[in-house]
Design a protein that fits this description.
The structure holds 2 protein chains of 2 kinds.
Chain A: E1 2-7, E2 27-28, E3 31-32, H1 33-43, E4 48-53, H2 57-64, E5 73-78, H3 85-92, E6 99-104, E7 107-109, H4 111-119, E8 124-130, E9 138-142, E10 145-149, E11 158-168, H5 169-178, H6 183-190, E12 197-200, E13 204-206, H7 210-220, E14 231-232, E15 237-239, E16 242-244, E17 249-250, E18 255-257, E19 260-262, E20 267-268, E21 273-274, E22 278-280, E23 285-286, E24 291-293, E25 296-297, E26 302-303, E27 308-310, E28 313-314, E29 319-320, E30 325-327, E31 329-335, E32 338-345, E33 348-349, E34 354-355, E35 360-362, E36 366-367, E37 372-373, E38 378-379
Helix pairs in contact in A: 1-4, 3-5, 5-6
Chain B: E1 3-8, H1 13-22, E2 31-38, E3 40-47, H2 50-55, E4 64-70, E5 92-100, H3 103-112, H4 125-133, H5 138-148, E6 151-159, E7 162-171, E8 176-179, E9 184-187, E10 199-201, E11 208-212, E12 215-219, E13 225-226, E14 231-232, H6 248-254, H7 256-270, H8 272-275, E15 285-289, H9 291-308, E16 312-316, H10 317-320, E17 338-343, H11 349-360, E18 364-369, H12 375-379, E19 382-385, H13 398-418, H14 423-445, H15 447-451, E20 463-467, H16 472-486, E21 490-494, E22 512-516, H17 522-534, E23 539-544, H18 550-553, E24 556-560, H19 569-587
Parallel strand pairs in B: 15-16, 15-17, 17-18, 18-19, 20-21, 20-22, 22-23, 23-24
Antiparallel strand pairs in B: 1-4, 1-9, 2-3, 2-4, 5-6, 6-7, 7-11, 8-9, 8-10, 10-14, 11-12, 12-13
The chains are: A alpha/beta, B alpha/beta.
Chain lengths: 388, 604
């Protein structure tokens, strides 16, 4: 069994964090989304993976190398022009002998799902329950035969196609010949002739919008790789699953309640509270008396003292001054000409931003990379981008 | 230079030693060879890279083998000069790394005794001497040979009468022993054998090693058996594939943020700087290194002098070791001089010799090294280990970066210790050093725009790199990178020095790469650029973000991420590495293995 992972696309809707990497390299639970897919495939017994890369390819190649540290062999295939997932799959078919799993690189899926797929002999479509429309389509079963539809864009709580499927080379080629906008579209024409079995995924999250990162992070921390290095000073309370990387210092009086994943060389505290579902990348400093919960802090960030961040995403190399606040609210967000209702999300801040001291970031506000918020400013914008 | 590997055990030896040998190709790739035992000694050797030799290799059933990859010192690269060498009746095979200084006189006396030499290599005296002294015991024969030869060497020998035995010895060049399960290894470095075992013995100079599948014995000069320590090396995932990158060099350039991050973590976890115990008032300091490491040392000089006001001299190892012993002058313990030696491999012959010279003069020696357990780390007083991981491309990239990082950390440490940095300033520096990986990531992300510079260089007769102050060493490093991988002649100069000579060479076919950061030399550099531009040389400038002046006076400019000028060498280095890489790539040179070079220079 082999696998093809598609990660050549740009991920424009996550552009605050994808200036130089594909969507699959954005971290959830302190690891790139692709990391979960590769490890999941390896745990299911897949040893050879073709990675189709393009946009931001060096970030992928530097992270995974030849795959040996992940227990598999990764070959890289290049899709230089962004001509869609069907083309990407065709490029990825190089060296595929027979059975393979096709995995678009913007899904979070738990390991068990891969195992279940591989254990079935027939071709498999992986389905997932989602509270939002999936671009790959919805799966309806009619007398046991799956049907892919795109009829119901408000498909809350229905069964969706995750874009992940197991097939053989022959079906792959048929899929390409069927043509269409993407894999879901092509599959729509093929499901009546190929006998696909539908397997439901255990946990699945399609990562498309900034606010998906927070919910994706909550899920991903279920797969928290447990490690505990670093230096933990006296009077630190640690509860639940908390991973702490090498060279990190947790200073006295801090309170950590897992699941939490903290990277290498961080400096946290004293007297800092980190509540559940928080991922903190390498090389992050968090000042004293700050409180962080349900958030992603990517690597190389500085969070000043007395900050309060909830439901918040902070991109790479961003600094947040002291006394800054990002508190969730429920609101509608206008994003890429569409309105979304979002709750329990704080601010979603891009890479390389500078947030001045005493800044207030309104819940649901989104900030692109390289932006600056001045001292004491109040920021509340749905989206600062080309469309506005 | 040259790489050596040997195996004795129960598995097919040929495959194992060839695979291990490939990991030593960085030590030289002029020719290679292997000796196995197939009822008698069989030697196969070939000029060119290991693949050439592999293509003429026949099946082997041997469970003992020694192999060699060569970097020519005595005699041109050819089949005859390749190792292993043998004696007249082909009873023995010898591989040798190093040089035999008195080989001419030995050769003359052996020839007068009737021995016929087949090659120009100095190494060929070894099989003749060993077989001359052989009377049933290979260890004894090698020991007698050691009395006759002078020079630096690692030698490994197999003999037809002892089909599962390897005998080896070292003198000033590297040799490690790997201990496995009913199999044992010798090699020039640990990376060659780590795939098979993590149990390593580091023999001392002139201890003779005897390996069989079941045993490892070490002997001293009197041939009495001596005790040894087995060290366990950290589990290590090997780097053998380029993981999608076209060259190892490019891969390693992109690995630099990780290398810096890992080295930073090492600095935080292991606190090597505190362990150095530099608690006396240091009156003067020397940094000693070769090649790219020397340039890292020069950058270190600027930052250490700026932060600590301790005068720093930087020397090439090959010069330092033969210089007048002025370092230790004064010799008072209160002002004991500090000598920092930088060697990626920890095996660089000249830097090792410099370390010994410095120690002899009573200096406190500190090594900055990328290979834990390497030779230099065993000889100096204190060690700072960088965590770049293995570097395969011959042109140094990520190790340069982590060496600079180590020197910046050392500078701030010394400055804090001596009181020239107060606590808040020290904290600020600490966080600046933390920021470096993310700054250089921004340059890496901008690599496409560096490609646009390539056309300026394709017809260049010569290229000048200029900079001032802390970026003057970067000009040197930029020139070194370009010449070693693209073979275009290049020179690095302090920008103010061009008018004292080199300006005579400037013209339309000599592009100038200028490094212009906004420190106190900025305005002077601007007028230097004007001078060069007036001579019609294309000016390509790397400047800080938002620079207004540079775009007006340059043919092309590249903007660095926002950074303090003192820290600019890090992103500038990445820019220069990528520039050289893309130029060389355009010219189609062998980027990972430039002609005539080898990765670690273990000869003088």
């Amino acid at each position: 069994m082999q696998a093809i992972i598609l990660t050549a696309g740009e991920g424009a809707r996550l552009s605050s964090w994808t200036a130089n990497r594909p969507k699959g390299m954005v971290p959830l639970g302190n690891r790139p989304i692709l990391d979960y897919l590769v490890r999941g495939a390896v745990k299911a017994g897949i040893r050879e993976i073709n990675m189709v890369v393009g946009y931001g390819k060096t970030s992928v190649m530097s992270y995974f190398g030849d795959g040996s540290s992940f227990g598999c062999k990764i070959s890289y295939l290049f899709q230089e022009e962004r001509t869609g997932t069907l083309d990407a799959m065709l490029i990825g078919l190089e060296g595929i002998v027979n059975d393979f799993v096709l995995i678009p690189g913007d899904n979070y899926v738990s390991v068990e799902s891969f195992r279940n797929m591989v254990s079935v002999n027939e071709p498999v479509l992986l389905s997932g329950k989602g509270d939002r429309w999936s671009k790959w389509g919805e799966i309806e079963l009619e007398k046991g035969i799956p049907k892919i539809t795109f009829d119901n864009p408000e498909a809350y709580g229905r069964i969706h196609f995750t874009g992940i499927l197991k097939m053989n080379r022959e079906i792959g080629e048929q899929l390409f010949k069927a043509g269409g906008r993407h894999i879901g579209d092509a599959l729509q024409k093929l499901v009546s002739t190929v006998n696909f079995e539908v397997i439901e995924s255990e946990y699945w999250h399609n990562i498309v919008y900034p606010w998906d990162l927070i919910s994706g992070n909550r899920l991903a921390l279920r797969d928290n790789l447990l490690y505990r290095h670093g230096k933990i000073e006296k009077n630190v309370v640690i509860k639940g699953e908390v991973s702490i990387g090498r060279g990190t210092v947790i200073r006295s009086g801090s309170y950590l309640s897992g699941p939490i994943s903290i990277g290498k060389s961080c400096d946290i505290g004293p007297n800092t509270v980190i509540d559940s579902s928080v991922s903190i990348g390498d090389n992050v400093t968090i000042g004293s008396f700050s409180e962080i919960s349900d958030s992603i802090i990517m690597q190389d960030c500085d969070i000043g003292s007395y900050s309060s961040l909830k439901g918040t995403v902070i991109g790479n190399s961003t600094s947040v001054g002291s006394h800054s606040i990002a508190i969730p609210i429920t609101r509608n967000i206008l994003y890429f000409d569409k309105t979304f209702s979002v709750s329990d999300r704080g601010a979603m801040i891009g890479d390389n931003c500078t947030i001045g001291s005493r800044a207030i970031l309104q819940g649901g506000s989104i900030l692109l990379s390289d932006a600056t918020i001045g001292e004491g400013e109040f920021y509340n914008a749905d989206f600062q981008g080309e469309n506005i | 230079m040259c790489g050596i590997v040997g195996y004795t055990g129960h598995k097919p030896a040929q495959e194992i030693v060839i695979e291990s040998l490939k990991k030593l190709e960085y030590r030289g790739y002029d020719s290679s060879g292997i000796a196995t035992y197939e009822d008698n000694i069989r030697i196969c050797k070939k000029e060119g890279p290991i693949a050439n030799m592999e293509s003429v290799l026949s099946e082997s059933t041997s469970t003992t083998a020694i192999a060699h990859t060569r970097w020519a010192t005595h005699g041109i690269p050819s089949d005859a000069n390749a190792h292993p060498h043998s004696d007249t009746d082909n009873s023995i095979a010898v591989v040798h790394n190093g040089t035999i200084d008195n080989y001419l006189s030995i050769r003359e006396s052996l020839e007068s005794e009737g021995y016929k030499f087949l090659s120009e290599s100095d190494s060929e005296v070894l099989p003749f001497l060993i077989s001359k002294y052989y009377s049933g015991d290979l260890v004894e024969a090698l020991n007698k040979t050691l009395h006759e030869i002078q020079g630096i060497f690692t030698i490994a020998v197999i003999h037809e009468n002892h089909p599962d035995e390897i005998v080896a010895v070292r003198n000033e060049t590297p040799l490690v022993i790997g201990v496995g399960n009913s199999e044992n290894f010798v090699a020039s470095d640990i990376y060659a054998i780590l795939k098979y075992t993590q149990q390593i013995i580091y023999p001392e100079d002139s201890q003779i090693v005897k390996l069989t599948p079941e045993s490892v014995e070490l002997f001293d000069a009197e041939l009495t058996s001596i005790d040894y320590n087995i060290e366990t090396i950290e589990k290590y995932t090997e780097v053998s594939e380029k993981g999608g990158f076209e060259h190892f060099m490019l891969k390693e350039i992109f690995e630099q943020p990780k290398a810096l991050q890992d080295s930073l973590t090492e600095l935080l976890v292991e606190s090597p700087l505190e362990r150095l115990g530099l608690n006396w008032k240091i009156g003067s300091m020397s940094i000693v290194a070769c090649g790219t490491s020397y340039h890292a040392g020069l950058v270190g000089k600027y930052v250490i002098e700026q932060l600590t006001a301790i005068p720093v001299s930087v020397s090439y190892s090959s010069e330092f070791r033969y210089a007048a012993p002025v370092q230790g002058v004064g010799g008072l313990l209160s002002s004991r001089p500090l000598v920092v030696l930088i060697s990626q491999s920890g095996e660089t012959a000249d830097t090792l010799a410099a370390a010994r010279a410095a120690k002899q003069q009573g200096c406190y020696t500190v090594a900055i090294c990328n290979v834990p357990g390497s030779r230099i780390t065993r000889e100096v007083d204190g060690v700072i280990i960088t965590k770049s991981g293995q570097e395969i491309g011959v042109a140094a990239t990520k190790t340069f970066m982590t060496q600079m990082q180590a020197l910046y950390a050392l500078a701030t440490h010394l400055a804090f210790n001596s009181g020239s940095l107060d606590h808040p300033q020290y904290k600020l520096w600490e966080s600046e050093i933390r920021r470096i990986p993310s700054k250089i990531t921004q340059v890496l992300n901008n690599c496409e725009s560096i490609k646009k510079l390539v056309p300026y260089f394709t017809n260049a007769k010569s290229v000048f790199f200029v900079g001032r102050n802390i970026n003057y060493p970067l000009a040197l490093e930029g020139a070194l990178k370009l010449k070693e991988i693209s073979y275009i002649h290049a020179e690095g100069y302090p920008a103010g020095e061009l008018k004292h000579g080199p300006l005579a060479l400037l013209g339309e076919d000599t592009p100038v790469v200028a490094i212009a950061v906004q420190d106190h030399t900025y305005s002077k550099l601007m007028s230097n650029i004007e001078e060069m531009s007036a001579r019609k040389a294309p000016i390509l400038t790397v400047c800080q973000k938002g620079d207004q002046q540079v775009p007006k006076i340059s043919d092309y400019h590249f903007e660095l991420p926002e950074i303090d000028p003192v820290l600019s060498p890090f992103p500038v280095a990445v820019f220069l590495q990528l520039l050289s890489y893309y130029i060389a790539h355009d010219l189609g040179t062998d980027i990972d293995k430039p002609r005539n070079l080898a990765k670690s220079v273990t000869v003088e």
